[in-house]
Request: fold
Amino acid sequence: MKITFLLTWADVMGGTEQAVFTQAAQLAAAHDVEIVSVFKTAESPFFTIGPQVEVRYLVDRSRGVERPVSPTGLSVAECAALAGLPTEFSAPAWERNIFTRLSDMELGLLLPSIDCDLLVTTTPALTSAAVRLTRPEVLTVHHEHRMAGVPPLPSAPLLDALVTVNERSRAQFKEALGDAAPLLATIPNSLPVAHRPRSTLTGKTVVIAGRLVAEKRVDHAIRAFAKASSEHPEWVLSVFGDGPERSALQALARELGVSGSVRFHGSSPHMAQEWAKADLALLTSRAESFGLVILEALAAGVPVVSYDCPNGPSEIIRHGVDGWLVPNGDVDAIAAVLAGLMGDRGALHALGTHTITGAEQFSAERVTERWEALFAELEAQRGDFARRRHRAERMACRSALDTSGSEARP
Reply:
């Protein structure tokens, strides 16, 4: 089977991008797999992938004026004008600020003639374009990486399958879409197959990793660490990641008097080695659709202290077994757990003994088996007229029930 993954951008450090690169590499052992990125924003992808998976781009944003990657007769001025116009595809507000009339044009050239058996989309706008433009014989699957509670996909009834990374999101789509829902499945993300050094849990380092944006609430981590480290001043908090909040977070560390023990390292392509130096992992996000950093920490033998935020942490961390879940947003509670584990090496090691079995539930092999089972089920129905009829009936139900939420229909 030829499988195409469609991304907004393949060259950034993000959970969706890492998940796609990991799954593409795993599936390439048995399938012809490619990644198509709408935008090129850097000279090379942040995540590496073997030569068996081709990564190609449609629109180049890395050299100033936005231009198609393939040869074009458009002038620089014409490209700039198209790049300044919003997308015409159905998209939530945040995506309408990303896609443009120029990217619409390139997707319009790609999708009607795309040479694949199965197309996996990763955002609402890409899904809207895919169901509108791809040939009927191409199987379409949307892999939902957003948080639970978001408006349902208006284009979902025209998909062959909608895959979520957590059970709560699947249940919410089922309730929201009703009879208009396509095949729904939950398949979590997985870690790449690689040697992962294991932490000895004999140091005094807490690690938090992720984009330095408001949604990650790294300020909560710094405040909690400042409280906990007042009892354990020899411990340090290592922050991995970059983003617009960095300067404010550094100022907060100075204000709280912990600038010497809160260390900002930027983004690292070698997080497996960094997790092996950690003794505790911390996650303070407002919400997480899954939480790959949790798996990375557990795979290194590092217990995770996390807010019990929607939705991923509680589906990965086994509370009191390989980590600790605390009430969402409660800085004092997370500080108390940190301080307790900092001062009790026995309790820390007890959690660490169970981390590997927790991570094994999400091994690349197990997750790939679930994708293969889904693909086999869809492939068996691809040539049936009943498949197209069911899609038409789902869309009719969708229109009749008027359950499209805040997004426009494709």
Q: What stands out?
A: The first helix runs from residue 15 to 27. The longest strand covers residues 32-40.
